[in-house]
Amino acid sequence: MRSRYLGEPATRPQFVTRRSVGLLSSAFLALSLAGCVPSNGPLTAEVLGSAANRGAQTYAQRPLTFDAVDVDQEVAAIAAEFWPGDLQSAFGVGSGSVNPTLGVGDTLEITIFEAGPDGLFSTTENRSSTLTVTVQPDGSASIPYVGSFRFNGKTLEGARREIVSRLEGRAVEPDVILTLTENSSRVVSVNGSVGSPSPVPLGLRGDRLMEVLAKAGGPSVPSHDAIVRLTRGGVSREVPLQAILNNPGENIYAQPGDQIFVSARPRMFSVLGSAGRSARLPFETDELNVIEAASLAGGAQISLADPQGYFVFRYEYPSVVEALLGAGRIAQLKQEGMLPDRQGRYPIVYRFDLSDASSYLVGQKFMMRDGDVLYVARHRSADFLKFISLITSSTSFAGQVAAPL
């Protein structure tokens, strides 16, 4: 029996062979592309699955354990109530010095009164004398007819009474007024980005941090970019200035010897995934909610983004995590390998479903924090569209290969 192509032009079998090779190449290329469609990050389900399916992994396969929380009104309220700052927990609020003590370097004005006109400190024209003394390095100062008097460690009233006592029997019914004119022993050092870096004397009633900063000319940088570092007794803590402004508990009383340093450190957040652009962006405002953050990033790429997959990745403070998850869940996560960072914060992911109209209102109550990562997940259909595009381009290439010579 003769072959179908027997007697046909010799070019026919060659054309069929090249076409077959081209189609096979296209098929193999499409199959290989199916497993490597380019993406800009995990899908919504993959993010949530990373938090929910940790039990199937070994610890070695689980480099980071975290949980994911859907943001509603309650979650937004819990997160919004917390202001990052630990001055109060580290140093306590303190109190105004009701009876501050005197110390080395203080300058005092001493006015001594006498009842008679011819006393040690009085004349017929003036019944009093005023002298100024400075407390010396040994803590004392000399007063006529009293001698070396130790001021260091005494209150103004205590020193006044003791001076009167030591003048009795020498002066005529003496009385004393003691005034602190220059406070050099109770000062706070203020440096950095302030109007007038200098030692700031503390008032007799005591000054809080914001009052001390005001005496130093106030911050010279915008409040939302200012960081305040307080060092006391070898312990240092730093907080955003905005945290002190918004949380009165962080505006603690300054103490003699405190060192305050104000630095400019713009708060930043990162945007990744299917947002309008991937970038690291500054807050440029005192407060920035997640809706505003998404807007700064150019919104979402309509053809790629999953409206149910807006995520904020954050290391959250323990008090917030406990309020959100409960002590039992936290204990479970720790057992599974969840570890805090150097500041004691735990990893958590907040999810916003912007396919729900109410999320746009809830999102306005959820404030971004310095270092947050806003991730916009891609929609599943985006992978399919990319895959079809790749198949189309590969088929076009295969068609060129299979074209007759």
UniProtKB/TrEMBL annotation:
Domain Polysaccharide export protein N-terminal positions: 101-180
UniProt xrefs under Gene3D superfamilies: Outer membrane lipoprotein wza domain like, wza like domain
Alphabetically ordered keywords of this record: Signal
Entry-linked InterPro entries: Poly_export (IPR049712), Poly_export_N (IPR003715)
Superkingdom assignment: Bacteria
Transmembrane segments: none
Tagged with keyword Signal: yes
PANTHER family named among the record's database cross-references: POLYSACCHARIDE EXPORT PROTEIN GFCE-RELATED (PTHR33619)
Name by which UniProt lists this protein: Polysaccharide biosynthesis/export family protein
